[in-house]
Amino acid sequence: MLGKRGCHQVMVLGLALWACGCSSLSAVFDRSEPGGLEEVDGLLSSVERAHLECELSRMESAAALAALHRVVAPDFRGDVILAYKGLESALEVSLAQAAALRATVGPMKHAAEGVVTEWSQDLESFGSEVMREKSRARLDETTSAYLAVHTPLVAACDAFERFNIGLSDHTLYLGHDLNAASVAAIEDELVLLTAMQLDLEAKLADCMDAAGDYVHGKALRGQLDLPPKESPQTVAALRPGYGSNGAAK
Question: DSSP secondary-structure letter at 220?
């Protein structure tokens, strides 16, 4: 039988062993900075922002093209100087919106890198190989879902830039020579610019579809009251605390 001293030694040894066994968990739970679910939620917010800016980009690029077509329409009647100023204003808005769309790429990439880095590190803390592999598979799915948003987003940014270059050239051209003959001389370029805007819309639609799939698949439990996927609502309007324009209330 153990005496009091022996029992005390066993207790001390047991506590020491318990502390060693828990040391691998301390890296997961003892964090001085936000991590885990906060990182995941930050990436989700970045994807939502990209979805919103894609929708606004679709609207503003279409409005800019419409402003150009009003100026060059064969049956144009009215104050052409006023119409041209409207085109200049539409161009400014389109340029600003393209910048806003491009500005979503960096933060979303940074958020994704944070999620992948921390998640990958935490895989080593699993005691169960089965749970580790299940978590690894979910990480792979999340990475693929992010890339499905990132790739068309970058493509849309590049397409928007090309469209705005063309729109700027047309605006500059017409600013010094706006008459029937000058419009007829750029008819082919107008057709090309229209095709560029349609290509931009297609790329924006691809990004919005991927962003919608990401939010529906990766939202934290209880965070969304999800409508059917065919609902016309924007993703940013789905989360509590966001208005119809995607801005935080």
Answer: P
H or E stretch including 84? helix 80-102
Which token pair is 205?
Answer: 């639609």
Are 111 and 43 spatial neighbours (Cβ–Cβ below 8 Å)? Answer: yes
Mean pLDDT of the chain: 79
Q: Which residues pair with 248 in a beta bridge?
A: 242
DSSP state, 242? Answer: B
Phi/psi for 148 (5° steps) reads -65, -25
pLDDT at 35: 53
In 3D space, the residue among 19, 231, 14, 183 whose CA is nearest the CA of residue 87 turns out to be 183
Q: 89 or 248: whose pLDDT is higher? A: 89
Condensed to tens digits (0 to 9), the pLDDT of residues 24-62 reads: 333 333 444 445 677 778 888 899 999 999 999 999 999
Query: Which has the closest alpha carbon to 136: 150, 155, 123, 151?
Result: 123
Q: pLDDT tens across 69-95, in order?
A: 999 998 888 899 999 999 999 999 999
> If we measure between CA atoms, which residue out of 31, 54, 43 comes closest to residue 125?
31
Q: Are 187 and 173 in contact (CB under 8 A)?
A: no
Question: Does residue 43 contact residue 146 with C-beta atoms inside 8 Å?
Answer: yes
Sequence-ordered list of residues with C-beta below 8 angstroms from that of 87, at least 6 positions apart, any chain = 64, 67, 68, 70, 71, 171, 174
pTM score over 0.85: no
